[in-house]
UniProtKB/TrEMBL annotation, chain A:
It comes from Roseicyclus mahoneyensis. It is found in: Cell inner membrane. CDD domains: ABC_NikE_OppD_transporters (cd03257). One of its GO terms (biological process) is peptide transport. One of its GO terms (cellular component) is plasma membrane. This is Peptide/nickel transport system ATP-binding protein. Its main location: membrane. Belongs to the ABC transporter superfamily. SUPFAM superfamilies: P-loop containing nucleoside triphosphate hydrolases (SSF52540).
UniProtKB/TrEMBL annotation, chain B:
Residues 303-554 form the ABC transporter domain. This is Peptide/nickel transport system permease protein. Its main location: membrane. Coiled coil: none annotated. The keyword Nucleotide-binding applies. It is a peripheral membrane protein; Multi-pass membrane protein. Keywords: ATP-binding, Cell membrane, Membrane, Nucleotide-binding, Transmembrane, Transmembrane helix, Transport.
Length: 320, 625
């Protein structure tokens, strides 16, 4: 059995609310409920969920930008409990959603590219220049971009630069946080294809986070569906939306606009997410769920295997 | 360089710059000028009036030459003022950056300390500092700098908090940068413009404060003079020999005026919001070029656009955002406009009611007929009665279009009363009806909500309710679901679909999503670089696109249920609309393009109910396979 590239063990995050002046300590907001997950080397794990489901918090924990409340992260078998981003940086890197705002407007692309090479790998000037040329070649960027400033680039070019920076750290795992959602559709496909090429060529492992179901399905080997901070379904990409087992996954799949499917609201008007300050007891989805029973009100369902390679956190999963 | 040009365009600031430059130049030159020594007393010649022999500005109560004292005093005052500003800015900015960057407890402790400093009246604080340190110019400088530190600290902290949460700071951290390095190389370059702005607007104030302390005898000590102590010494002779006070007084006035005018100019030139022209008030309706050729009107459609052309004139560049668009929509029909960003779809929509910001926008050609009336060039009063009542808009981001400080009910009532008078009770009833119509549960309670109390989907429903408020005939929806989650999007789309069937609304729906178009729209127009490249019934176009752009755009969008696969990307980027290639704008990215595609005008050919702008269209057999 191979060691997973990335292993999350009961990783969770609770944001403290602080205390009011005289009142008791308040419980805090649970952004991510304990998640246990393995990502295999060379795999792309897609994570989908709607706004507020905790996917960005999860991603930022994985690269050490925020410390987890509980749980551990293991990279290639070695535990990473060190909250120093420079240590994380060499093993796991991050590609940001907004390509322009992830580049410092007052630095040239060369200065941005040199930082990880100099600080993470201690390269001298000559080595850095060669390496940058190599990376730019890999992501098909022209070398004359190096002396320009970020505002001179289109979204697609800036996202390539963001990917190039992540590659410069030589991490083998990339967290891609909505890497194409700020891009135009015709450019989106270019970047997705580039990511696929890089993965094949450099043997990378991806965690691909997106709200766009079709995009996630097109790039992922496996997909985890996140709802209210918990993984509610995990399975092979081709199965998750074709034969969803969790009612929420089915709702997502039915809501996605598909040419030729008649237009109808897949559920009633009230689709508010539960209030994170006052989380419901039992299953977080039960208020919206057509299959909810008494059990769902009392007991939080846990992620359990439904059939081969497909897990679901539901007391009454849809037929398999 | 651009900032300098902007500064020079501001007449007052330029005047300030010239005066200030002159004063600084003379102050620097003072030691080399043939002036009398400033501190030599000559009591036989005391209180000589101005223009006396050997003393152009006269002499003071000890017979010292006023001109010489003025020059040396100005030199001293300027030096102390600038030094104080520099010290206050450096220390204040350092405090602000540390507090803003680290946040949490560090921020709390530092900023409460700063708040305590600010709780004292500044002059009292300065007096206390001088009293503790003893009088003297250096101590006055320290006092003035100290009382101004809080101003810089608070200002810079606010800016730093914003920058410290930007993604590029996270990225720098992942590149292995330490906190100190991030502060120096990532944060500091981005706050320096703010520091410069704050300094330029306060240095005049600091010169005044130093003069104030010297006037009270706490600053420069005799015989050395700065402008403040000159005023202080002349106080006793204010009535008998006013020139001794007027001379230094006028100099203070000139310096502070010049610095303040210059400071305002610097602020205007450096502030990014002002630079982008965000504070320019646009005209109430888009400008129309006098050379515009109106088009003839058409029957049966409720809204018709004919060869509409909208451009943006920025400096010497012309952006052809909309390059001749013809569209029409019938009652009860939904027309989709699909395109990428920069394709001109939103500008087309805004041009209909003259909502494109002018300047820089200008409608240079074509017509927009609403029920037979040409709206382009219609007087503003006419447009205002039609806006919202006949043609209403729904925008992408309801968070930005709803006023955060008013209850949604009041905003709905306001939308109605803009067109007809309504009593308070009637208005409230109508607002509740509207919220019911867009299926907001418990409408009678939620009518009292503020926008921030609602979810994104609910806010967009309010946006739709507002568009419906005056029973318009046409609704133009500009990416109304792009900011929403899929489950909410599905509800909003089905709501719009129901509304147009119930009320016979004509909808123009702008989007970049083929799935949405396929589900909602009867007809669709595909836009590229400001022009329509293909138009026709939605099903026909989605089943068999003829224009290579449509076909390839559809191919590069993954569709749910397709499994893991490689997408057929379109190479290259859309052209910039200020530099369009001749011929077909898509030719540089098109694999079917030939030489003829790159020359001349390619017309939009109508065949049956479809229209196509292409010389080498995808054939029917290719398209279907």
């Amino acid at each position: 059995m191979t060691t997973p590239a990335l292993r999350l063990d009961t990783l969770s995050k609770t944001f403290p609310l602080g205390r009011s002046l005289f009142g008791p300590e308040r419980p805090g907001v649970r952004a991510v409920h304990p998640i246990t997950l393995d990502v295999m080397p060379g795999e792309t794990l897609g994570i989908v969920g709607e706004s507020g489901c905790g996917k960005s918090t999860l991603a930022r924990m994985l690269v050490g930008l925020i410390p987890p409340t509980t749980g551990t992260i293991e990279i290639e078998g070695a535990a990473l409990d060190n909250a120093d981003p420079a240590v994380f940086g060499k093993r796991i890197q991050y590609v940001f959603q907004d390509p322009i705002s992830s580049l410092n407007p007052r630095k040239t692309i060369r200065q941005i590219m040199e930082a990880p090479l100099k600080l993470l790998h201690g390269m001298d000037r000559a080595a850095r220049t060669t390496r940058i040329a190599e990376i730019f070649e890999t992501v098909s960027l022209r070398a004359d971009f190096l002396d320009r400033y970020p505002h001179e680039f289109s979204g697609g070019q800036a996202q390539r630069i963001g990917i190039a920076r992540a590659l410069a750290a030589e991490a083998r795992i990339l967290i891609l946080d909505e890497p194409v959602s700020a891009l135009d559709v015709s450019v989106q496909a270019q970047v997705l294809n580039l990511l696929a090429d890089l993965k094949a060529r450099l043997g990378l492992t991806y965690l691909f986070i997106s709200h766009d179901l079709a995009v996630v399905e097109a790039v992922s080997d496996r997909i985890a569906v996140l709802y209210f901070g918990s993984v509610v379904e995990l399975g092979r990409a081709e199965d998750v939306f074709r034969t969803p087992r969790h009612p929420y996954t089915k709702l997502l799949a039915d809501s996605a606009p598909v040419v030729g499917r008649p237009l109808r609201a897949p559920e009633g008007a009230e689709t508010e997410l539960p209030d994170p300050l006052n989380p419901p007891e039992g299953c977080a989805f039960r208020a919206r769920c057509p299959r909810a029973t008494d059990l769902c009100r009392k007991l939080v369902p846990t992620l359990a295997p439904a059939d081969a390679g497909h897990s679901v956190a539901c007391h009454n999963p849809l037929g398999g | 360089m651009r900032s300098l040009a902007l500064l020079a365009r501001n007449r007052l600031a330029l005047g300030g710059l010239i005066v200030m430059g002159l004063v600084v130049f003379l102050a620097l030159l003072t030691p080399a000028l043939p002036l009398k020594p400033p501190n030599i007393t000559d009591t036989s010649n005391r209180f000589l009036p101005p223009f006396s022999q050997g003393a152009i500005l006269g002499t003071d109560h000890l017979g010292r030459d006023l001109l010489s004292r003025l020059m040396w005093g100005t030199r001293l005052s300027l030096a102390v003022g600038f030094a104080a500003a520099l010290i206050a800015a450096t220390i204040g900015a350092a405090i602000g950056i540390v507090a803003g960057y680290y946040g949490g407890r560090t921020d709390n402790v530092i900023m409460r300390g700063v708040d305590m400093l600010m709780a004292f009246p500044y002059i009292l604080l300065a007096l206390a500092i001088v009293a503790a340190l003893g009088p003297g110019l250096i101590n006055a400088l320290v006092a003035v700098a100290a009382v101004n530190i809080p101003f810089f600290a608070r200002n810079i902290r606010g800016i730093t908090v914003g920058i410290a949460h930007k993604e590029f700071v996270d990225a720098a951290r992942l590149s292995g940068m330490s906190d100190a390095r991030i502060i120096l190389t990532e944060i500091l370059p981005n706050v320096i413009p703010v520091i410069v702005i704050a300094m330029s607007t306060t240095v005049g104030w600091m010169i005044l404060e130093t003069a104030g302390l010297s006037f009270l005898g706490l600053g420069s000590q005799p015989p050395v003079a700065d402008l403040g102590s000159m005023l202080g010494e002349a106080r006793a002779a204010l009535i008998t020999n006013p020139h001794t006070s007027i001379v230094p007084g006028l100099m203070i006035l000139v310096i502070v005026m010049a610095i303040n005018l210059l400071g305002d100019g610097i602020r205007d030139a450096l502030d990014p919001r002002l630079k982008s022209g965000a504070l320019n008030r646009p005209l109430p309706a888009t400008l129309v070029a006098p050379s515009r050729q109106p088009a003839a009107q058409h029957a049966d459609a409720i809204l018709t656009l004919d060869n509409l052309q909208t451009q943006f004139h920025v400096k010497d560049r012309v952006y052809r955002a909309v390059g001749g668009v013809s569209l029409s929509v019938k009652p009860g029909e939904c027309l989709g406009i699909i395109g990428e960003s920069g394709s001109g779809k939103s500008v087309t929509a805004l041009s209909v009611m003259g909502l494109v910001a002018s300047p820089p926008g200008i409608i240079t050609g074509g017509s927009v007929h609403y029920q037979g009336e040409d709206l382009v060039g219609a007087p503003y009063r006419r447009l205002r009665t039609l806006r919202g009542r006949e043609v209403a808009y729904i925008f992408q981001d309801p968070q930005a279009t709803l006023h955060p400080l008013y209850r949604v009910g009041d905003q709905l009532i306001e939308a109605i009363t803009a067109h007809r008078p309504l009593s308070r009770d009637e208005g409230r009833r109508k607002a509740i009806d509207l919220l019911d119509a867009v299926r907001i549960p418990n409408a009678s309670a939620r009518v009292n909500d503020y926008p921030h109390e609602m979810s994104g989907g609910m806010r967009q429903r309010v946006g739709i309710a507002m568009a419906l408020a005056n029973d318009p005939e046409v609704i133009i929806a500009d990416e109304p679901t792009t900011a929403l989650d899929v489950t909410v999007q599905a509800q909003i789309l089905s709501l719009l679909d129901d509304l147009r069937r119930e009320r016979g609304l004509a909808i123009v729906f702008i989007t970049h999503d083929f799935g949405v178009v396929g589900q909602l729209c009867d007809r669709v127009a595909v836009m590229y670089a400001g022009r329509i490249v293909e138009q026709g019934p939605t099903r026909a176009i989605l089943d068999a696109p003829r224009h290579p752009y449509t076909a390839r755009l559809m191919a590069c969008v993954p569709e749910l249920g397709g499994g893991k696969r490689r997408l057929d990307a379109i190479p290259g980027l859309p052209p910039a609309v200020d530099d369009l290639p001749p011929g077909c704008a898509f030719a540089p990215r098109c694999d079917r393009a030939t030489e003829t595609c790159r020359t001349g005008e390619i017309p939009l050919d109508k065949v049956g109910d479809r229209a196509l702008r292409c010389l080498h269209p995808v054939t029917m057999t290719e398209a279907v396979s």
